[in-house]
Amino acid sequence: MIKLVEEKCQKPQADVSQFEIGDTVDVHCRILEGEKERIQIFNGVVIARSGSGTREMFTVRRMVAGEGVERKFALHSPRIAKVEPVRSAVVHRAKLYFLRDRVGKAVRLKERIVKRTVEESVAAPKKARRGSKNKRKTAE
Predict the structure, then answer these.
(1) pLDDT digit string (tens) for 36-68?
(2) What is the pTM of this model?
């Protein structure tokens, strides 16, 4: 019985974007002001994910005027329009609570290099290496 209710409440897999801990994301939140509805973007680093199914939550941290601000979101909430990953980082922890104690450049995480698919690599022409003979031939 509970599984049926949870399945109805969950967003389809296509709507839930794939992001991991350490990713910088734009969370598009629906905000009601009177009778008007607008979307506000909350940009930050995902420092934690918890729960499963319809109860899954994630925490996003950002710096506002030198002050750290964390906000917890329910992944399947109707208040969230979409979660858009901006960049991903290499992390070796499940929870990045250590970022709370850090300030300035120490907060930065090493960016993860995303492997391109075969189709993308074939479509993109290879750049000539610096000082290579191929570069001189194309210039002539």
Answers:
(1) 999 999 999 999 988 887 888 999 998 888 888
(2) 0.67
Q: What string of DSSP letters covers the chain?
A: -HHHHHHHHSPPTTTS----TT-EEEEEEEEEETTEEEEEEEEEEEEEEE--GGG-EEEEEEEETTEEEEEEEETT-TTEEEEEEEE-B----S--GGGGG--GGGG--PBPPPPPPHHHHHHSPPPPPTT-HHHHHHH-
Please, which residues bridge with residue 74 across strands?
57
CATH class for domain 2-139?
mainly beta
The domain segmentation of the chain, as residue ranges, is: 2-139
